[in-house]
Amino acid sequence: MDHYLDIRLEPDPEFPAPTLMGALVSKLHRALVELGANDIGISLPEHERYPPLGATLRLHGSVSRLQALMEIQWLKGMRDHVTLDGIKPVPADVTHRVVRRRQYKTNPERLRRRRMRRHNESYEEAARRIPDAVERQVTTPYVVVRSRSSGQAFALFIEHGDCQDAPVTGVFSTYGLSKEATVPWF
User: Where are the domains of the chain?
Assistant: First the structure.
């Protein structure tokens, strides 16, 4: 993770930034699947200053892998909506953090249906065991993406872990997220 590439969303009067970010992450997902890449990570460097997501998607990896990604023209259809800064080396003396997918089980209706299937219970019994009070508000930033394998749209919650001094190596998903591997944070 010695290089990075910033992809910045341009303001658009027709599409809000979260919609464009979702489309961008969906396109990146398809490209990472096509490349079979598990060595490219992402971060949202502006998510704390400009909630919920900011306007910049930062890709992290080696210069050769980032070049290979950009050679497959995965940004087709998004070029009018983004600006690329080019591949650059990561600055010296940066911190690192895990950027991972966070999944929540917050919808009581979905939890009840699941319980009904798994325990062969009636709706009334499941509702008694899972009250409406289990629902909670989630503040983690997310993008709405479409899965390449299932075609289903879903909310992909993206959580930035605590900053740490040393990098941790590991693999990344086809969304550029990891449970343990870190990306440079600056």
Answer: 3-101+163-185
Q: Of these residues, 3, 29, 47, 81, which one is catalytic?
A: 29
What's the CA gap between 39 and 60, in Å, rounded?
Answer: 8
Whether the ω angle into residue 13 lies within 30 degrees of 0, i.e. cis, is no
Q: Which whole-number Å values give the CA distances from 148 to 21, 28, 78, in the listed order?
A: 17, 11, 18
> Tens place of pLDDT for every residue, the chain, 186 residues?
899 999 999 999 999 998 999 999 999 999 999 999 999 999 999 988 877 889 999 999 999 999 999 999 999 999 899 999 899 999 999 999 999 999 876 678 878 888 899 999 999 998 888 887 766 666 788 888 887 778 888 889 999 999 999 999 999 999 999 999 999 999
Q: Does domain 3-101+163-185 have CATH number 3.30.70.2540?
A: yes
Active-site residue flag, 29: yes
C-alpha dist (Å) from residue 23 to 9, 19, 106: 11, 6, 25
39, 94, 118, 124 from 91: Cα distances, Å: 19, 7, 51, 58
Percent of residues in the chain assigned helix, strand, coil, to nearest 5: 30, 25, 45
Strand-pair partners of 56: 8
104 secondary structure, DSSP code: -
Predicted structure pTM score: 0.83
